[in-house]
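Subject: complex prediction, re-run

Hi both,

The earlier run crashed halfway through, so I resubmitted it with identical inputs.
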Amino acid sequence: MRRLWIGLTYIVFFLLIAAPLGKIISNAFSQGLPGFRDALTRPEALHALMMTALVVVTVTVLNTVFGIMTALYLVRAEWLSSRLKNLLNSIVDLPYAVSPVIGGLMIVLLLGPDSALGAVFEHIGFNIVYAFPGMVIATLFVTFPLMVREVMPVLQEIGGQQEEAASTLGAYGWKTFWKVTWPSIQWAVTYGVILTVARSLGEFGAVLVVSGNIMNKTQTATTLVYQDVENFNVTAAGGVALVLAAFSVGLLLLMEWSKKRKEVR
Amino acid sequence: MHVEVRGLNKHFGNFHAVKDVSFEITKGHLIGLLGPSGGGKTSILRMLAGLETPDAGEIVFHGQVVNNLPPQERGIGFVFQNYALFKHMTVYDNIAFGLKVKKANKSFIRDRVMELVELTGLKGFEKRYPQQLSGGQRQRVAFARALAPEPQLLLLDEPFAAIDAKIRQELRSWLRELIERVGITSIFVTHDQDEAIEVADEIMIINQGRLEQKGTPWDIYKEPKTTFVATFIGESTLIENAAELKGFKPAEDSRSTKALIRPEYIEVGDRQEFKMASATEKGIVKHLQFRGSEWLVEVEVNGHKLVTYRSLEKETLQVGQEIAVLVHRAYLFNDERSWIQENSLKEDPMPVYI
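This time it finished cleanly. Structure:
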């Protein structure tokens, strides 16, 4: 009986992960190494990978800063009433519950060219939707809970007393944050950064809606894969997908490492 | 430093945690804030430190109102109940923190930290992290850390609560000595009356947000000003109607006068042991317990259970034995007032002069 379950687990694992991964690799190299290289050095592929990198870096920086700030306010701020804190706390989880496509749609409706706000921005020559800022906002929406949810429990666990102690010893906000709070949360933040990178690297739905998927302009690696598949260009799709998969594996290893550090602390 | 507090009030939501507390502390004194848990002691301490903002009232250090000063500017040292040591820093860095924040020069920091390490008996532990220390050692680090920037006022929140009984005893006298040597005005919070009595120059009893009484331990023990203080300090038995006790017939109408009797107010023994046998009452020994240095005697008098101690030197009593009981004095109180009364029959009404 036990053997059967173990066997079943292996089969599921194989069907869900190993087989698709193998297929991606074989597709990517279906025309040998030159085919793989051509798929990646197409101008649109290079542009898409660069777009993805830009979005990932921008989103990760913003999400880290605002995520830590939100977590700090939700846990420490005494001037926020507890009811407001509870409300904010549940809103943080909203992106988990809302489909990314709907998240993207909300941004288009709110900031698109047809909306009042969007028109204002367009007037001053700053496009949000179907441009880089919109893609960043959409990805931020999707990744927002990741950092907050990593940092909040750690802040709650260490409590506010070390920070209070620092203040009675003469240290003000910044000093206290860097010398006292940061060393305690740094591994949680690292973990949150890795999750954010992984999530924004793979984000598809929200970005697709917001970016309009314009080749050489707003196309990211994931939306390029989607388009290649639509065009039956399987080799090209496999090549880009393999690059994304390689990054994911790398991140997974990093994640394991940082999780261990987080536990040891 | 000289500390003065006037009309201090604090609410937490609907809970009135500190009610109109005023007091003054002389420079160099060691004060114990004593009272049951949840009575508002820690809130008072935190307001002194600036970690909590009072709703009303003034806090004055050295004749200067400090209400609007943040904790960083108040020149205080705070020792937290769980020490709140920086756990990613070594003992050395913990102690040096306050000095580094003030940007003192390196060699001064070094000298000061080593001096404190020496003073707190932590020599050889400078490179350790807080997790590698015992509870008592952590307490000392917290203490040294608070003292390092040379504060004017030291505030300690339940400093011994997290330490086991035996080491607590040692630390108490150590702390007392150290504070005396440093000469710093200190306030500590405790719910343990032995601790307060043993360590403090003066005790402030706090109950339900109110300051019940302030005075030396002996004064408070001897002359409790309120019923709460009388019941809280020392052990005592409550008698609902004081008139039922022999020798305590109050002059005025008295149905509502109650009495509190401490064990040391009571003497028990054979009738012949007493000089004024007429003042004694008959009692029956209900229970005996050996307490190491004396007997704990529970005796029933007129349906009231009284508790007292009896020396081991005296003849050992038996359970069920009929004995004489003399209540020397009692703490009497009714709705209007409270007072201490001596047994009126103890004075010989017809002294015989030879």
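Chain A has a mean pLDDT of 90.

- K.
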